């Protein structure tokens, strides 16, 4: 069904929207990519994107200078394709907004930004599992637009604002004076409405806990510790001891137990999947 849709859109767009010639045909596929990524449900995008990629591969060859060359009837056409280089820490928001205003195919600009955000957020979630609220927020922005709740311009602006917040989150460990792993533990250990003194103690608790788990002896994160009940108890005991010594006194027994559980089960989850903090 989707192959027929692509063909129909191509035939409809080629003469009226983009004119004729090989260069224009490449632009057709770029245009369709934007339409598809902006309007088809997420579960269908991969199959359709693959089809378009195959069609483009048949028409163009990409070299290291980002120059697309195609030949038709012994005539050579050359299309210069300048893609964006995405670096969250260096994004110029004013420039992106201006480029969007002047863009011919706004859906493509949106699709590129959205794809970048989804990939970057996936990497950030791998660094810090507590960032699920960002994933929920991004999905809400996408769902609102797909449901007709926002215009194309508002959708792009919502994504831009989200990008700014995501950059602030990506740099938060610097402001907190922590590395990424310490920040994840800090986020697990903190509570609502902490005083400055409490915040500092929780920071130190996160640093002390990571140091105990990874560097101090006797070593608790031994090989395959998560597979044995006794070694699990040793890890749990080490977590409880560090937090008992470092968390603020305002953490009552119930909250203390909750924080110990949160840390232990996250470490257990990572170890069982061979990820960070594994032996």
Describe the structure.
With 279 residues, the chain is mostly helical. The chain has 3 domains: 2-80, no CATH class; 88-170, no CATH class; 180-272. 68% of the residues lie in helices and 5% in strands. The chain is built from 12 helices and 3 strands. The chain has helices spanning 2-18, 22-39, 42-59, 93-102, 106-127, 132-146, 152-170, 172-176, 180-189, 196-214, 229-246, 253-272; strands spanning 61-62, 67-72, 75-80. Strands 1-2-3 form a 3-stranded antiparallel β-sheet, covered by helices on one side. Strand 2 (67-72) and strand 3 (75-80) form a beta hairpin. The longest helix is centred in the middle third of the chain and has 22 residues, at 106-127. The two termini are 50 Å apart. Mean pLDDT is 81; it is low at 1-5, 12-20, 39-43 and 58-83.
């Amino acid at each position: 069904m989707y192959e027929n849709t692509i063909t129909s859109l191509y035939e409809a767009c080629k003469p009226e929207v983009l004119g004729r010639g090989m260069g224009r045909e490449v632009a057709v596929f770029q245009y369709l990519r934007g339409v598809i990524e902006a309007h088809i449900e997420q579960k269908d995008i991969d199959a359709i994107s693959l089809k378009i990629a195959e069609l483009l591969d048949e028409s163009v060859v990409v070299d290291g200078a980002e120059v697309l060359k195609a030949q038709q009837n012994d005539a050579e056409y050359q299309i210069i394709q300048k893609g964006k280089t995405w670096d969250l820490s260096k994004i110029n928001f004013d420039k992106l907004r201006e480029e969007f205003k002047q863009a011919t195919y706004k859906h493509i600009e949106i699709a590129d930004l959205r794809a970048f955000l989804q990939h970057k957020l996936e990497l950030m979630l791998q660094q810090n599992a507590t960032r699920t609220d960002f994933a929920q927020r991004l999905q809400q922005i996408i769902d609102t637009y797909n449901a007709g709740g926002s215009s194309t311009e508002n959708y792009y602006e919502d994504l831009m604002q989200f990008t700014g917040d995501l950059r602030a989150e990506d740099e938060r460990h610097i402001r907190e004076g922590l590395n990424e792993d310490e920040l994840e533990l800090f986020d697990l250990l903190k509570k609502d409405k902490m005083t400055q003194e409490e915040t500092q103690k929780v920071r130190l608790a996160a640093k002390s806990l990571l140091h105990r788990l990874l560097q101090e002896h006797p070593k608790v994160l031994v090989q395959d510790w998560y597979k044995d009940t006794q070694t699990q108890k040793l890890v749990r005991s080490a977590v409880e001891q560090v937090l008992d010594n470092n968390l603020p006194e305002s953490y009552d027994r119930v909250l203390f137990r909750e924080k110990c559980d949160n840390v232990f089960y996250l470490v257990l989850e990572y170890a069982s999947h061979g990820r960070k903090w594994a032996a």
